[in-house]
Specification:
The chain has 113 residues and is an alpha+beta fold.
Length: 113
């Protein structure tokens, strides 16, 4: 998990959706906005109800993604706002392939170097 200070707030989420740029991979869509460089990078994860009906399972997917994102916090570009939108179901077997896919899309977007 990541600290609450490093999650995108509702107000910042609106800015991110209006001004952010989109990047896509097989399992994710990523929306990124580069703002104020003196603030830390912030992340958000959204799992649609269409993908997973149960709130318990949606939150489980979010926790798995936040767990992987935790390792990228120290190297993330300051001032970046990133929102991950999950496209496909993530189960325990797919967890091993999660880290490289997230790393690839973060590099492609410029959030990490």
């Amino acid at each position: 998990m990541i600290p609450a200070k490093r999650k995108v707030s509702r107000d910042l989420f609106k800015v991110l959706m209006r001004k952010g740029r989109s990047y896509h991979s097989a399992g994710f869509s990523l929306r990124v906005f580069f703002g104020n460089n003196d603030k830390p990078a912030k992340f958000s994860v959204a799992v649609p109800k269409k993908l997973e009906k149960s709130a318990v399972r949606r939150n489980g997917i979010k926790r798995r993604v936040y767990g992987v994102l935790h390792s990228f916090l120290p190297i993330a570009r300051p001032g970046s706002l990133s929102a991950f939108f999950i496209k496909k179901k993530i189960d325990a077997r797919a967890l091993s392939g999660l880290n490289p896919e997230i790393q690839t899309i973060l590099k492609k977007s410029g959030v990490i170097g």
